[in-house]
Amino acid sequence: MNLFIMYMAGNSISMFPIMMVGMLFLRPVKALLTIQSTFKMIEGGQAILQKIVYLFGNLACLALALYKCSSMGLLPTHASDWLDFVEPLQRIEYSGGGIILT
């Protein structure tokens, strides 16, 4: 279902795709934070394996959300994205032009 939502959201920056990407992030994070209460009723030898599969599934959803952000251009992946944090160059020499009179 998340793949379909990613496909339908497109790569443009507008309200609908941003909300979809936000939900792609929030749902797996909420699921990972409540993993103990989700598996409270399941006990036994298979519970650990099921928790691991559940964990990897939610991590895959987070990876899909990061991929979507990257394809939309929201992740700072280039050096030009960090230009606000670069100190401007200090000039060592100054020169000025002049007019040659003959």
What features would you describe in this structure?
The structure is a single chain. This protein starts with a helix and ends in a 30-residue tail after the last helix. Helix content is 58%, strand content 0%. 6% of the residues are buried. It has one domain. The mean pLDDT is 84. It has helices spanning 2-9, 15-33, 35-38, 45-72. The longest helix is centred in the middle third of the chain and has 28 residues, at 45-72. With 102 residues, it is an all-alpha fold. It is found in: Endoplasmic reticulum membrane. The chain crosses the membrane at residues 6-26, 47-67. Belongs to the EMC4 family.
Q: Could you provide a short overview of the structure?
A:
This protein has 102 residues and is mainly α. The chain has four helices and no strands.
The description of the largest β-sheet is: none
Give the structural class: mainly alpha
- Write down the overall mean pLDDT: 84
Order of helices and strands: HHHH
End-to-end separation: 80 Å
Tally of domains: 1
How large a portion of the residues is in β-strands, by DSSP E?
A: under 5%
Quickly count the helices.
Answer: 4
Low-pLDDT sequence parts: none
Helix content: 55-70%
Round the Cα radius of gyration to an integer and report it: 25 Å
What global shape is seen?
elongated
User: Number of DSSP strands?
Assistant: 0
